[in-house]
Amino acid sequence: MKCQVPLLVGTALVLSLVLLLLQTATVVKADRLQPKGYKETVEKLQKFYVSFEDKVSREFRRWKQHGTMSSHFRELIQASAIRKSERAQEIRELPTAREGPLCAICRGFGGSVLEFRREGASREEVFNTTVDLCTMLNLQEESICRGLIELNIDTILYIVDNRPDLSSASLCAVVFQSGACLLDDPTFSEWQVDVDPNGTPVTASKAGTAQRGPNDLKIVQITDLHYDPNYRPGYNAVCGAPACCRESQGVPEDSENGAGHWGDYRNCDMPWNAVEDLLERVAEDHPDADFIYHTGDIIDHGIWETSIGYNVRSISRVIEKFRETFPETPIYNILGNHEAHPTNVYELGEISRPDFSTNWLYHLSADLWSQWLPRAAEQTIRLGGYYTALVRPGFRVIALNNNDCYTFNWWILFQPDALKGQLQWLHDVLLQAERANEKVHILAHLPISSDCFSVWQREYRRILERFRDTISAQFHGHTHKDEFNVFYGSENPEFAVGVAWNGGSGTTHTDVNPNYVVYYVNPETYEVTDFESYAYNLTLANMAPNERPAWFRMYSFQEEYGLSDLSPAGVDELIQRLGTPAGRAELRRYWEYKVKLADASLANDCAEDCLLNHLCEIVTNQADDLRKCQELSETFFD
């Protein structure tokens, strides 16, 4: 095909932005790192964003006034279209060089739709327009765009209509939460949790001495099952949608693209037989488990076609299977971002529309979880999906619903200070626990380092630092990776104050093996003394569909890394080791375990830049605080 002239104004605008960031991207050694000259580049970008927004706005208006797109607008859209490979990626996984272009695209086209609505466009007009843009910008296939927009449009229009000061700059800064997309609206950041002032300053890393012993408690973490009732072996696993291997997607011509019996490394979730096998294997191999932590995400990735009824059926079936499989074992459940309908959207504050309420999920959860919890927990579950329970004298579990802080929870855009409510409750429960000499485990679906709104992260860190001696451990899910995070002092980042462990996932979505984790916990301090991760190789399992998968102990954390203990101070010693050339082999092994030895991930390998990025993910717990990452990068290549 004959080449078109590339320097039309619209194309040049987008390409110049890409080049602006690529100028500095050559020195980027990890996606979490900011390249040299990054702040200066970001300052230049702010002027560009305004220019790009104006350009898109003018062309958008002409399109709506005349009913046809100019060739110039089409070129703008073509130059802005995202890569297909980026559809399935989390924002945190995208390279630094993509931050600016994506922020510009969001502000340019998102701003035009905001103006369109505020100038009187109807729901139907906004719907049709956003479907067109979603498709042309290559965000998803048209059917996926239609489903997603239909599920979310009423919430977004309510927010736009009732918060007239919301700008595209703020919207995009919350969603992308990157240095290139600046948030300068004080209403998003000028709120704080009231923290008790009687804590001690952070002057040293939190130490521990607990070693694994015969009397340790045994706690199993199961997370991110993502059960898909529509999964069909042999059906299309390469469908291009957020969830594949589903009955509606048909059988592919190439049998290599068909879904496996026990699951699939591609964009596919768990069939029921795999859910059953995982739970039954835990019951068979660990009958002495004292408790189970089930940390959310039961619902599959079919985010464009969920419904309340659909979610209720899947949630109820999975919880009933837990009840049947572990009749005598206490189970502490929490919600994942996928349990909500629409996905990710958890109501915040007082909303006048009952059809936006998340109460259906909170009431369902209160009913389904009741047999494992004290009666007092019911009140806060029905209020907001969170609770606390005294497990035994001196030991308390706090189960958060921190999905409200997910940057794709649209209600943050409407009333960001409503995020304070649950955090203040967390603080107050911890204060009571401190006074009662209790130790606490905190369960939260979203890792604090992951996709939580940065102001929420800031306030959580304040709480963690204040009650670091009361909080013995934290447990997360969501990422589908077998990983951990170390928290450092906000004022004294050389000191480690907490560790959070991630249980991985039952689902294989995407390119990971299924796993669960067994923790050993000191019965006096309630510190984690060791943990073992169990998995099976999906490739081998699918080669023997008539046999149960061969689960194996993947590793013991204590044995693998030879730590004195798993306290923040002990784990920080490991971090310092991993941040040097001498620790490279251990860091590579960490990455291999992180993807759970999955063939599909191991085939892609992880070079040194990639390894540094994974190391930075361990120590980054606030989106706008990369100090520990920068510190480690200085020793990484010595």
UniProtKB/TrEMBL annotation:
Please list the residues that bind Zn(2+) 1: 224, 226, 297, 480
User: What does the cofactor field's note say?
Assistant: Binds 2 Zn(2+) ions per subunit.
Positions binding Zn(2+) 2 in this chain are 297, 337, 445, 478
Question: What functional role does this protein have?
Answer: Converts sphingomyelin to ceramide.
Q: Which residues form the signal peptide?
A: 1-30
Q: Which organism is it from?
A: Anopheles epiroticus
**UniProt-annotated location(s):** Secreted
**What is stated as this protein's family in its record?**
Belongs to the acid sphingomyelinase family.
Annotated Gene Ontology cellular component terms: extracellular space; lysosome; membrane
GO biological process annotation, one example:
ceramide biosynthetic process
* Main location as per UniProt: secreted
Alphabetized, the UniProt keywords read:
Disulfide bond, Glycoprotein, Glycosidase, Hydrolase, Metal-binding, Secreted, Signal, Zinc
Annotated InterPro entries: ASM_C, ASMase/PPN1_MPP, Calcineurin-like_PHP, Metallo-depent_PP-like, Saposin-like, SaposinB_dom, Sphingomy_PDE
Tell me which stretches of the chain form a coiled coil. Answer: none
Q: Which residues form the Saposin B-type domain?
A: 99-185
**Catalytic reaction(s) noted:** a sphingomyelin + H2O = phosphocholine + an N-acylsphing-4-enine + H(+)
Q: Mind telling me what this protein is named?
A: Sphingomyelin phosphodiesterase
* Entry's Gene Ontology molecular function annotations: acid sphingomyelin phosphodiesterase activity; hydrolase activity, acting on glycosyl bonds; metal ion binding
